[in-house]
Amino acid sequence: MSDTTAPGSERPATPDAVAVSPGGGADASEAAPRWSVVRPAPEPFPNAWQRRVLLWFLLAAAIVGPLGWLYARRLVRPLSGFARAAEQLGRDPTAPILALAGPAEVGRAAQAFNRMQSRLRSFVDDRTAMIGAISHDLRTPLTRMRFRIEDAPDELRTGMLQDVEEMETMISSVLAFIRDASEPGTREVLDLSSIVEDVVEDAVFVGREVTLVDTRPATVDADAIGLRRLLGNLIENAVKYGGRAQVRLFTERQDAVAEVRDDGPGLPDEELERVFQPFYRAPAARSSGQQGSGLGLAVCRSIARAHGGDVRLARGERGLVAQLRLPLALEVSRA
User: Nearest-CA neighbor of 227 among 262, 187, 176?
Assistant: First the structure.
């Protein structure tokens, strides 16, 4: 029997269709073949099953999402406390000890941080006390030297007395610095512009040529007495060696910046950092005939760094520019 399909007859259904022959029996076999083709209709997206799966995912995310967020917040909160404590330690070495809270690992890290802070504080206090004790003990041999100088020849007495007086001035400066460092003032949130204006007014009142060029509000967390001493020393140096001072206060990124400019001869580049060494006086300062112990700029930098800032010198168009940079208060810097 041949497999060839007769002309005019329908071909068998393709694989993606279903062919159905109606009827059966002898009459059906004698009738001409008739086929019905059934094709499945495509379902829309999403279908019922896909909608149910998507709904389950949304319900699970709505339940697990808030719980995961709360758990993550609980884990991260101690880390943010560490960041605040480290920032506060850089601004104020006498900051309170970090409170212990959180998981066991965080508690051990907090204990290590507190021990480090206590050791740093003890190290600084011990060094400060040692320097103060040495400076105080030097007064006794200087007093004996004064009595012995009285018996020295006249041509030697004047020079020796000047040397002794200079040493006593240096010792007094050291003791004053140690006293201020061992008894730090109370930190408070204040506007640095008010302190700058007060220091400038005091300098003008005593007859110094000081001008307040510009000032902007700058909120800092600082010791008001220490900042007054710092700014007073910078203005005094500017007037002493530069004739007059121009003061300006502004903010730059997260810092408050106070600049004191003078019209003096300035300093060589290699001396700009060296003058911050205790008891060092630049050759120009020694030859100027002005009195000084060489401790003023060292004290200024020490006060600034105790507040998390710094003091630097730079060459200006005329004279020097002394720049005080302090971090803004934490509440302001986060805003």
Answer: 187
